[in-house]
Design a protein that fits this description.
With 172 residues, the protein is α+β, with helices and mostly antiparallel strands. It has a domain at 62-170: Glutaredoxin (3-Layer(aba) Sandwich). 36% of the residues lie in helices and 23% in strands. It is built from 7 helices and 8 strands; from the N terminus they run ββββααβααβαββαα. The strands form 3 sheets. Strands 6-5-7-8 form a 4-stranded mixed sheet. It is globular and about 35 Å long. It starts with a strand and ends with a helix.
């Protein structure tokens, strides 16, 4: 059930119609949360169950963001790190990019609105950072410092980025 609240008072809450199948019902009582299933169930039973709406909402609010942080002045190596990072992600994760489970963002940390990232991610140089966001909150992140080691070997660079992004996607 979904309620709309007036900013002035909760007492003016409007009930929104809840639909189930072809019937529409209006409920004033809060809908009880579904009981969670035990941690260890037989694999066959898990496969037969369909995901609950809560699970679907959770996965919709979960994503991995790959940030490339750069400055205003950009050397060739820094430009290659951004280029390779973007290419690797587009190559290995086109479906995840399309469905919103993965995003790539190149940001200039010298711009006022992006300066907070320097402290947020403890940046000390140009960096590629991957962040796992669950329920609209950052759950974990990792600075992929080895991009500097692999920037001269495109295949190793791609593999490194792929492996690290895969790890976070599996945690969603």
């Amino acid at each position: 059930m979904y309620k709309e609240f007036s900013p002035k008072s909760e007492s003016k809450a409007t009930n929104i119609v809840e639909t189930r199948g072809e019937k529409a019902t209006v409920s004033v009582e809060p809908t009880p949360a579904p009981k969670s299933r035990p941690l260890k169930e037989p694999a066959t039973k898990q496969k037969q169950e369909t995901p609950s709406p809560l699970t679907e909402v959770k996965s919709q609010n979960s994503k991995v963001i790959v940030y490339y942080f750069h400055g205003t002045f950009r050397c060739t190596t820094c430009q290659n790190i951004e280029k390779y990072s973007k290419e690797a992600i587009e190559h290995y994760f086109p479906n995840e990019l399309k469905n919103g489970k993965l995003e790539f963002k190149a940001l200039n940390v010298e711009e006022a609105e992006n300066r907070h990232y320097i402290q947020d991610y403890q940046l000390f140089s140009r960096a590629l950072v991957i962040s796992l966001v669950k329920q609209d909150k950052e759950a974990t992140w990792k600075n992929l410092t080895d991009v500097w080691k692999h920037v001269r070997d495109k295949d190793k660079f791609f593999q490194y980025v792929k492996d690290e992004v895969d790890k976070l996607l599996k945690e969603m």
